[in-house]
Design brief:
Strand 7 and strand 8 form a beta hairpin. By secondary structure, this protein is α+β, with helices and mostly antiparallel strands. It has 4 domains: 386 residues, Na+/H+ antiporter like fold, CATH 1.20.1530.20; 78 residues, Regulator of K+ conductance, C-terminal domain (Alpha-Beta Plaits); 79 residues, Uridine Diphospho-n-acetylenolpyruvylglucosamine Reductase, domain 3 (2-Layer Sandwich); 31 residues. The strands form 2 sheets. A 5-stranded antiparallel β-sheet has the order 1-2-5-3-4, with no helix packed on it. Helices cover 58% and strands 7% of the residues. One of its GO terms (biological process) is proton transmembrane transport. It is a multi-pass membrane protein.
C-alpha cells in the first residue's frame, strides 16, 4: 500500500510541476515539450530527484499508448478539406522524405559514431520523422498564423510519417538480428503494414462514428467509448500485422470528418487527454535518460543534429516538394519546422528492446538530437515565420464558436463576439434581424435586450446563427479598418469582383492580354492556375501586377485582390529550394556564363600568341593556296 501511494505521489507531483513550469514557459516563450523533458531529467537518476527508471519495456508500452492517443486526436482535428490542397506534398514528405533523411543521417552516423552500418541507419530512422505532438502544439497553440496549405502540409506530414519511420526501424532491427529477408518478403511486410493500417483505420473510424450516432449513449460515456475503441483498434491492428499508429490516425480522421453526437465534448476530452499524454511521455523519457553517459557521444550527436537541421531535412523538403507549387520561403519554413520529439526517442528504444549492442548509444544520440531540435527550431519558429514574411494578417472572426446539437438536425451555432470600437455595430449601425444578439454582457453584467438595442464597444454579444451567415456577422461586430502595409502586401491594394473578365481588367489597367484567357473570369483564371485548390493568399502574375485570392467562402473565391506594385513577399530569403523552372533557368544561366568565360579565356590566349604562330604554314617557301569562295 505504501509503495503504491509513493508511486502515485511521485507521478502526480511530476505532473503538477510540469503544469506549473509550463505556465512560466509560456511567459518566456520556452517550448513546452522541452520543459516536460527537463522535468524528467531533473527528477531522474542524475538529477535532484534521483529516481532510477531503466525499464525499457514499460517505457515503450507507456510511450506507445500515449502516442496512439496523440495520433487519434491529431486525426480527429484534421479536416479532410486540408487533404485536397496538401495531401500529396505531405505524403511525399512522410514517405520519401523520411527515407532521404534516414539515409543522410545514417551515413553520417556511421562515420561520426563508429557504429556498424545497420545500427547507423537505425539512428537515421529514429530521428527521421517529425513529431506530431511538437508540430501540432507549436502551429496550433503557439499562435503562428500561416497559410493553410503550408500548415496543412506540416500537420498531415507529422501525423502520417510515424508509420514510415516505425516500419524502417522494425525492418532494420529485424535485419540486425536475423539478416535481411528477400525483396519479396520486405515488400510484403511494407504492404501489410501500410495497407492493413489504412484499411482497418478507415473501417474502424466509420464503425466508431456509426456507433456513437446510433447508440445514443449518455454523453459522459461517449469520450470513454472513443478512447477504448482507439486503443482497441491500435492494439488489434498491431496483432494482425498492420501499423497500429497509422490505423488510429486514420480512424480519428474518418470520425472527425462526419457529424458526431457530442462532437464538441469529444474534442475537448481528447484535447485534454493529449496534453496528459504529452506530459507523461516526455517526463517518462526524461526519467529513462542517463545524462552521465552523454559525454562520450555529445559532440557526434551535436554534429548529427546540425546535419539534420541544415542538410538532411532541407534536402528532403527540396526534393519532395519539387513537383508542387510552394514558394522558396515556404519551403524554407517547412524545412525549419522539422521538429523531432518523443517519437524519435520512442523509436530509439526499439534497438534496446531488441538487445542490439549499440542500443543505448542509439537512444542517447536520438535524445540529444531531440533536445537540440526542440531548443533551436522550437524556439525560433515564430521569428522564422516573420523573417520569411509568411505570417498571415489577422482576419475578422468570432471570439468563440459553440457547436449545438438541436432536435431535427437544425444546423445552428452559438457564437460570441466582443464588439470592436471601430466596428459598424459600435458606430450605431442598425443590427439586422438575423444578427440580433440573444444575450449581451456589459461590464460583467447581463443587460436586458430591450436596454441593449444600441451596442457599445466592449460588449460581449452571444447569438444563434447558421454557419453560412458568419461572414456577414463578422463584418458587423468585428473591426472595419483600412488595410495597413502588411495587409496590402498579402491581400493586395484593391479588391476586384471575381466575376470580372480578364479582358475588362486588362483594359482598365493597361495589362497584356492573352486572347485565350480574354473571356475568362478572374475566379476561373485563378482556379485554373492552381488546379481548383485555391486558398487565401494564392497569387499569380499578370503583366506588371499580381492577382491575389483575397476572400473565400465555402471553397469559392468571393474577392480578388490586385497588387499594383507586387511586393517582395515571394523573394527568397534563402537562395535555395528553387522550383523546376527556376532551377532550369539557373542551370542554363550558369552554363551560359561558364561557356562565355571559356570563350573569353580562349580569345585571351589567342591575343597573347606571337603573330607568326597565327600565320599559315608554307611549303618550300611557297605561298599557301587560297580557297576561293
Amino acid at each position: 500500500m505504501e509503495t503504491a501511494s509513493t508511486i502515485i505521489l511521485i507521478g502526480s507531483s511530476l505532473l503538477i510541476v510540469s503544469i506549473l513550469t509550463s505556465y512560466l514557459a509560456l511567459r518566456i516563450g520556452t517550448p513546452l515539450l522541452l520543459i516536460f523533458l527537463g522535468v524528467g531529467l531533473f527528477a531522474g537518476i542524475d538529477g535532484v530527484g534521483g529516481i532510477s527508471f531503466n525499464d525499457a519495456d514499460s517505457a515503450f508500452l507507456i510511450g506507445s499508448i500515449a502516442l496512439a492517443v496523440i495520433l487519434f486526436e491529431s486525426g480527429l482535428d484534421t479536416k479532410l478539406s486540408s487533404y485536397r490542397a496538401a495531401a500529396w506534398p505531405a505524403l511525399s514528405l512522410a514517405t520519401f522524405g523520411v527515407a532521404i533523411t534516414s539515409g543522410v543521417i545514417g551515413v553520417a552516423a556511421h562515420f561520426l559514431l563508429g557504429l556498424p552500418w545497420i545500427e547507423s541507419f537505425l539512428v537515421g530512422a529514429a530521428v527521421s520523422s517529425t513529431d506530431a505532438a511538437a508540430v501540432f502544439f507549436l502551429l496550433r497553440v503557439g499562435g503562428i498564423t500561416i497559410r493553410d496549405r503550408v500548415r496543412s502540409t506540416l500537420e498531415i506530414e507529422s501525423g502520417s510519417n510515424d508509420p514510415t519511420a516505425i516500419l524502417l526501424t522494425a525492418m532494420l532491427v529485424e535485419a540486425a538480428l536475423h539478416g535481411w529477408g528477400t525483396p519479396l518478403e520486405l515488400a510484403g511486410f511494407l504492404v501489410k503494414q501500410i495497407a492493413g493500417g489504412a484499411v482497418l483505420g478507415v473501417l474502424g473510424g466509420a464503425v466508431l462514428a456509426a456507433f456513437i450516432n446510433k447508440a445514443r449513449l449518455d454523453p459522459g460515456l461517449n469520450p470513454v467509448v472513443t478512447l477504448a475503441f482507439a486503443l482497441f483498434l491500435f492494439a488489434g491492428t498491431n496483432e494482425l500485422g498492420g501499423s497500429g499508429f497509422l490505423a488510429v490516425y486514420a480512424a480519428g480522421l474518418v470520425a472527425g470528418n462526419v457529424k458526431l453526437r457530442g462532437a464538441l465534448g469529444l474534442r475537448q476530452f481528447h484535447s485534454g487527454l493529449t496534453w496528459l499524454s504529452q506530459i507523461v511521455m516526455f517526463v517518462m523519457l526524461g526519467l529513462f535518460a542517463t545524462p552521465h553517459d552523454f559525454g562520450a557521444i555529445a559532440l557526434p550527436a551535436l554534429a548529427l543534429a546540425v546535419l539534420l537541421i541544415l542538410l538532411a531535412r532541407p534536402l528532403a523538403v527540396w526534393l519532395c516538394l519539387l513537383p508542387f507549387r510552394f514558394s522558396a520561403n515556404e519551403k524554407t519554413f517547412m524545412a525549419w519546422v522539422g521538429l523531432r520529439g518523443a517519437v524519435s526517442m520512442l523509436l530509439a528504444l526499439v534497438p534496446i528492446l531488441g538487445g542490439l549492442p549499440g542500443g543505448q548509444v542509439i537512444f542517447n544520440t536520438a535524445f540529444l538530437v531531440v533536445i537540440v531540435s526542440l531548443a533551436v527550431q522550437g524556439w525560433t519558429i515564430g521569428p522564422m515565420a516573420r523573417w520569411l514574411k509568411l505570417i498571415v494578417p489577422p482576419r475578422r472572426g468570432p471570439v468563440e464558436r459553440f457547436e449545438l446539437e438541436l432536435p431535427g438536425g437544425a444546423d445552428q451555432e452559438m457564437v460570441a463576439y466582443t464588439v470592436h470600437p471601430k466596428s459598424p455595430a459600435a458606430r450605431g449601425q442598425r443590427t439586422p434581424r438575423f444578427a440580433r444578439p440573444s444575450l449581451v454582457i456589459r461590464d460583467g453584467r447581463v443587460v436586458p435586450l430591450h436596454k441593449a438595442r444600441t451596442l457599445q464597444a466592449g460588449d460581449m454579444v452571444y447569438l444563434f446563427t447558421p454557419p453560412s451567415q458568419l461572414p456577414l456577422i463578422d463584418k458587423l461586430f468585428a473591426e472595419s479598418r483600412p488595410l495597413d502595409q502588411d495587409d496590402r502586401a498579402f491581400y493586395g491594394d484593391l479588391a476586384l469582383n471575381p466575376d470580372a473578365t480578364v479582358e475588362q481588367i486588362a483594359e482598365m489597367y493597361g495589362l497584356p492580354l492573352s486572347l485565350a484567357n480574354a473571356q475568362r473570369s478572374l475566379r476561373d483564371l485563378l482556379r485554373n492556375e492552381f488546379g481548383g485548390a485555391c486558398e487565401l493568399g494564392d497569387r499569380m502574375r499578370m503583366g506588371g501586377v499580381e492577382l491575389i485570392v483575397r476572400d473565400m467562402q465555402d471553397g469559392q473565391i468571393t474577392s480578388v485582390g490586385l497588387a499594383l506594385e507586387p511586393s517582395a513577399m515571394d523573394k527568397a530569403r534563402v537562395p535555395l529550394f528553387q522550383g523546376p523552372e527556376r532551377l532550369w533557368q539557373t542551370i542554363l544561366s550558369w552554363w551560359s556564363k561558364r561557356s562565355f568565360r571559356r570563350w573569353q579565356r580562349r580569345e585571351t590566349r589567342r591575343e597573347r600568341l606571337p603573330a607568326r604562330a597565327l600565320e599559315a604554314p608554307t611549303l618550300a617557301g611557297k605561298e599557301p593556296e587560297r580557297l576561293e569562295g
